[in-house]
Amino acid sequence: MDDNGLAMDMVNALILVGLWLAYFVFHSLLASMAAKQWVASRYPTLMPYYRLSFNSLAVALLLLPVWYMSTHQTEYLWQWQGLMWWLMNGLAVVALLLFIWSLSHYDTSEFLGTRQIKLGITAVHDQETLHISPLHRFVRHPWYTLGLLVLWTRSMDLMLLVSAIAVTLYLKIGSLLEEKKLIAYHGDTYEHYRRKVSGLIPLPWRYLSKSQAKALLNKGMD
Fold this sequence. Notes:
globular, mainly alpha, two-stranded antiparallel ribbon
């Protein structure tokens, strides 16, 4: 690659960083308690639609950095071949299957926002009670973990690598911010869970057995 091509790749990478940064800032602002409280205090009749609108807007805005990444691809920095191709894509398939299986342990209507609309819920706080699914016994943010596994098992060009690093950093920071809200919602129960279970990377010595998870939830209900 000549110097002009390398310089253009770096410019495109910097633009992509800017697009991801703008998306993350906007996403975080809309997800914040401050934004929800502002809408609730001024437009309470719109609150039942907040979660669904937030999810829809998040997906729509995500298309911009993804489009830029896909239309400015560079030469591969590394590309899986042979046995590694099967291993990495096998891990990605397992992650996707685990994600699909995990949906049965979530209140998807609450997550999507349709439940709030159906019941006319105007509360700022999430209504779903604390639960510890099978995957939550091994990692506190299983969807983030599975998403990162799919992302980092791809063959990488510069633009995808930039995106992978940006998304990883954001999910790490976002998970910490999310946990502040969960501690506010669930208090000591979540604090205890947080001390026992790893955040994004499962660790053999940090997990809850099925009985321990049940005992923790029962204690939190007392």
